[in-house]
Amino acid sequence: MGKVAEPSLEKFSLLTTTLNDAIGWARKYSIFQYPFVTACCGMEYMSTACAHYDVDRFGAGFPRFSPRQSDVLFVVGTISHKMAPVLKKIYDQMCDPKWVVAFGVCTCTGGFYDNYATVMGIDTIIPVDVYIPGCPPRPENVLDGLMKLQDKIQAQKQEI
Amino acid sequence: MVIEAFVNHGEATVVVKKENVLVFAQGLKKDPALDFDMLIDLFGVDYLHWEDKADRFEVVYHLYSSRANHRLFIKVSVPESDAAVDTVTGVWPAADWYEREVWDMFGIVFRGHPNLKRILMYEEFRGHPLRKDYAYNQRQPLIGPRN
Ligand code: SF4
C-alpha cells in the first residue's frame, strides 16, 4: 500500500486566517450573554445593560435567559456553596464556543466574604476568561472588561 | 437544679444543670405565676478560648410570657465530651428549627428532637461552621477538590 499524501493546506493559509478573523469578528460583535445574577452587582449590571451605558453598542445587548442559547456567562454577584452546583450546571449546559466573565470581586476571589458559606472565586468551579474587579465595578469598568473579552475572542483560534 | 441566678443588664438569667433543662422548662411553662408561653430565641455559644469557662459550649434559651409580660434567660453549659441536651420541642414547638440550627452550626445534639438534621448547610457539609476551631475557608464537598 502506498503512503497517502497529506493534502497541503499551506496554499490555503491566507484563506484560513482570513476566515478565522472573519468568524472572530462576527462572534465578538454578536455576544449573547447569560446574566447569572445573584446579588448586589446586579444593579450595576442593569445599569450597564440599559440605555445610559448601552452595552448594545458592543453587540452584547441581547440577554438570553437560556444557557443553551448564549455565548457568554456573566456571573454577577456572590456565589455561595449551595449555589455552586447550579452555576456549574448552567456552565455545562452552554454550547461551545463559550466564555465566562467574573463580574465583581465576589466572583473573582470571594471579595470581603471570608467565611464558610461563600465560594472563594468562581474559578474554583468553572474556567473564567475575564475578571472585572470592583465592588461593584463601575459600568465603565464593565465595558472595559467586555472590550477585553472581545479582543480575546478576536485573537483566539475559532473552533467551528 | 439551678446553679446560679442573677440579673444581667436588667435581664433575669438562670443557669441550669444540663440534665434538668427539660423538667425546668416544663415547670416554667406550666406554673401559672411564671407562665412562660413563648420561646423567643434559642442559640448556642462556643467559648473555646475562654479560660474562665469550665465547659466549651453553652445553650441559651430566651423566654417570654405574653400574659405576664416578663422575660427570662436560661443558660445551660454543655461540655465538648458530651455535647447533647434534651430537646424542648415538646414544651415549645418553636424550638424545632432553633435546635436544628444549633445542631448545624455547633454540632450540639438535642436528644429526642423529632427531625434533627441540618437547616442551613447541606447534608454532605463536613464540620460545624460556627465552632471556633472550624477552618472557615476549607474546601467542602459541593465545591470540588481544588485548593
Ligand atoms: S462584589 Fe460587591 S457589589 Fe458585587 S455582589 Fe459582591 S458584595 Fe455585591
The CATH architecture designation of chain A is 3-Layer(aba) Sandwich
Helical amount among residues of chain A, as a percent range? 25-40%
Report the CATH C-level class of chain B: Alpha Beta
Number of domains of chain B: 1
User: What would you call the structural class of chain B?
Assistant: alpha/beta
Q: What are the segments of chain B in which pLDDT stays under 50 over at least 5 consecutive residues? A: none
Structural class estimated from helices and strands of chain A: alpha/beta
Strand and helix order of chain B: EEHEEEEHE
Q: What is the H/E order of chain A?
A: HEHEEHEHEH
CATH fold-type name of chain A: Rossmann fold
Q: Please, how many domains of chain A?
A: 1
Cofactors and ligands present? iron/sulfur cluster
Q: What is the number of strand segments of chain A?
A: 5
Shape of chain A: globular
The total beta strand count of chain B reads 7
What is the CA–CA distance across the termini of chain A?
A: 34 Å
Strand order of the largest sheet of chain A: 2-1-3-4-5
Strand content of chain A: 5-15%
Strand content of chain B: 25-35%
Within the CATH hierarchy, at the fold level, what is the topology of chain B? Beta Polymerase, domain 2
Write up this protein.
The complex is a heterodimer of chains A (160) and B (147). Chain A is α/β, with parallel strands linked by helices and 160 residues long. Chain A has one domain (29-149): Rossmann fold (3-Layer(aba) Sandwich), CATH 3.40.50. Chain A has five helices and five strands. Chain A has helices at 13-28, 41-49, 84-93, 105-109, 139-155; strands spanning 32-37, 62-63, 72-76, 99-103, 130-132. A five-stranded parallel sheet of chain A has the order 2-1-3-4-5. In chain A, strand 1 (32-37), helix 2 and strand 2 form a beta-alpha-beta unit. The longest helix of chain A has 17 residues, at 139-155. Chain A is globular. The model of chain A has no long low-confidence stretch (mean pLDDT 87). Chain B is α/β, with parallel strands linked by helices. Chain B has a single domain (2-111), classed as 2-Layer Sandwich (Beta Polymerase, domain 2), CATH 3.30.460. Chain B contains two helices and seven strands, in the order ββαββββαβ. Chain B has helices spanning 21-30, 95-106; strands at residues 2-8, 11-16, 38-46, 57-65, 70-78, 84-86, 109-111. Chain B has a five-stranded mixed sheet with strand order 1-2-5-4-3. In chain B, strands 6-7 form a two-stranded parallel sheet. In chain B, a hairpin with a 4-residue loop joins strand 4 and strand 5 (70-78). Chains A and B meet through loops of A and loops of B.
